Amino acid sequence: MSNVIPLSRPDINDDDVRAVSEVLxxxxxxxxxxxxxxEDMMSQxxxxxxxxxxxxxxxxxxxxxxxxxxxxxxxxxxxxxSFVASANCIEHAGAKPVFVDCDxxxxxxxxxxxxxxxxxxxxxxxxxxxxGNPTGMRELAALSAKHEIPLIEDACEGLGGxxxxxxxxxxxxxxxxxxxxxKQITTGEGGMIxxxxxxxxxxxxxxxxxxxxxxxxxxxxxxxxxxxxxxxxWNYRMSELHAALGVSQMKRLDEIMEARARVASHYTQALSxxxxxxxxxVEADVFMSWFVYVVRLGLxxxxxxxxxxxxxxxxxxxxxxxxxxxxxxxxxxxxxYGYEAGDFPMSESVSQRTIALPMYVGLGEPEIELxxxxxxxxxxxxxxxxxx
Length: 388
Description:
alpha/beta; Aspartate Aminotransferase, domain 2; seven-stranded mixed β-sheet
């Protein structure tokens, strides 16, 4: 049975449905004007000269690495605490991910910790704005410039956010956004590369389309008729259906962010006084675009306690999930690189105690109060059980 209060829910309105329907009726389902319009909207929003629509955020990260010439024998620094895509993309390019532990407050990488992991094989840094929080991105950009190593901004969770006056998406050589159904805006599946590097953008345009020539953006249909291949490529294109939904959603981005911010504010008010619970930390110069609302249990709680609390929430028809497992402890990375428990202590500690609570437009105060009360009840039950 599905949860009465789900973990996430896309905000789809009649305009979104109409936009997709119009594309279906047009007969142009790929490589068309909707893709160009979506790219233009994104480049203007972020303040970048180039935007390349792709099939997912993971595909975008992979293409950027390939476009920068990163491959076997190279190392790319990436967070231990993140969604696994920020490590998978490195292996897709044939390079080695080098993990860095997270800061206990922001959950992002610290520039000092990144610098300690640099070697003569380091070819890029993937800086992830975990849960959409850009804190520390300026320092990573400065470190990148100091060592002349490109910073790739994994902005997949932060569309619309800012650090001071600087939008998320402007801190790296390139940045990548994602539009999965639980994100601020959705295209169903999809991603977007943004950059000021035209050569990199053209390489990504070519590689997303099986390695064909990038073509003339003013005549998008021509890229489908040129069968010549210039480089190794993939089918990482975004369809016109997905792009049309993205265009429609982008028109409401500010409205959607405001609604999600109200949900986050209600949560913080409801949960700030719950003992042994850490609510998200937002620095004074951060304008947060809320992707998820993730709380953290106190150190007295174990991973087993956290899992039991999540199951308790679900039994009460409230969606909840563990965000995120520590990447180096996944079986693949253990086997491939020999990582063991204790190698990234902060990431492991945090990952055992995080709980993602329902977050979506339309989640009201009564539901948030119910979620908060149920969470506190499940925490109390776990404490009593541990005393037995």
